Amino acid sequence: MIVRIVQMHFHAHLVADFETMFEEIKENIREQPGCQLLELYQGADDAQTFFTYSYWESEADLNNYRHSTLFKEIWPKTKALFDRKPIAHTVNKIHSLK
To answer: To the nearest 10°, the Cα dihedral for 57, 33, 39, 69?
Structure first.
């Protein structure tokens, strides 16, 4: 299992645009082969900061999504809203906390 966390910071006047766009595309991303989970969180201390949290069956599934037509369609639209470069972390999930 691959876990991907992406921290994004948006221009203040474009936050609502991102929230609207995410609502429109989230189900399409969740339907991508290998996507097990996709969630969006807003920063507790900064309303312009968001985090996407996703689980993928394998690194190949994540890479296939990142090279998909869907990603190529939504990435430029998302990128145009950023205030700064996003920070992405991809890790292998080894254990769950219980």
So the answer is: 130
Can you list the domains of the chain with their CATH numbers? Answer: 2-92 (3.30.70.100)
**Per-residue pLDDT reduced to its tens digit, 45-93:** 999 999 999 999 999 999 999 999 999 999 999 999 999 999 999 998 7
CA dist., res. 79 & res. 12, Å (int): 14
- What single string gives the DSSP state of each residue in 16-75? HHHHHHHHHHHHHHHTSTTEEEEEEEE-SS-TTEEEEEEEES-HHHHHHHHTSHHHHHHH
